[in-house]
Design goal:
- By secondary structure, this protein is an alpha/beta fold.
- The protein contains 16 helices and eight strands.
- The protein has helices at 24-27, 47-51, 53-63, 80-92, 104-118, 124-129, 190-209, 218-237, 242-262, 266-278, 282-287, 290-297, 302-312, 316-326, 336-347, 361-369; strands at residues 17-20, 38-42, 67-71, 97-102, 138-142, 154-159, 164-169, 177-180.
Length: 372
Amino acid sequence: MYSNKETDINKYFMPTEVHLGKKCIEKSKDKFSEFGKKALIVTGRSSAVKSGAQQDILLVLAEKSIEHVIYNEIVENPTVDSVVKGAGIFKENNCDHVIAIGGGSPLDAGKAIALAAKHNVTSKEEFFSTDFSEAFPVVAIPTTSGTGSEATQYSIITDTDSNTKKGIAHPAIFPVCSFLDPTYTISLSENVTRNTAIDALSHLLEGIYSKRRNPLTYPVIFQGVKLIYDNLKKCLQNPENYELREKLMIASLYGGVAIAQTGTTVQHSIGYPLTTEYGVAHGLANGVVMKDIMEAYYPHIKYELNQLFHFIGINKLVFFSWLRELLTDVNVEITDTFIEKQAIEVAHSSHVNNTPGNISPSLIKKIYLQLK
């Protein structure tokens, strides 16, 4: 029934407890006493405050007599140096758990800090050489609808020496609990709303593309893609509509659930250099190559993609038209030197092992050339 799957064994594991809904932090405040006595709150410089999430957390921590320290220096595409610094602050202040608030960057940084602090990592070199085995508990509070990091065992960190993104994958960094309040996404700009939703869409599609694709996740993948297809444009036109924000947040969660089981594919590794070299937002970097990636994968997973489009009530061409309309204002300029270099590097990335078909440098080059 499921084409080109390399094993007939399907497994599902996600130990994260999820609370979803308006004021879910306040309504679930008794949970916070279970996580520890002193939290390191990991955030960016402004998004946690602007969304209202940080204020809600501080009220609950005060009520529950839980101490905290705020580390609010996480930037987009968090660096190893910021993780090592955060781990040092965690240890210096005798914290016992992390509360990560924000988009994918603070959530990923919080997970990495929980690992580094548990293993007493004090340098970049130690971070990359440590054989991680456990982590301090992580509580995740997303303020965007994109990465799904609140439901995964992944953390993506940037190594500024090589200007590359490096992924960590370990069951210990599944958040112990995640609180998803769509209200926190209402303050997002139009571009961030679009780009993060496309990131979630990429995760959902990669749950089908992956060689580890798992039919146990197909119901959430299909529903997640439909939620984005049906509601993203409406949300861009009505940004303060709670119901639309909730649907996008559910879709993002579903994307995290999917890739937690399947991993990501070359769809991600072809987008990473656009971010590190040209500063293209991560979700948008996935979006600008999404059509060509799907066309390349389609012959190998035609059955599953046709099932998906049937579920949504469209076909592939209608999907491409919808995607093109979302990206009409996007212009990514890349050089021939970049294309030649990245065609080789992407084709030899670890994601290739999880990708259907023959991913050659010539195919990657062809996809990049479509951006010129």
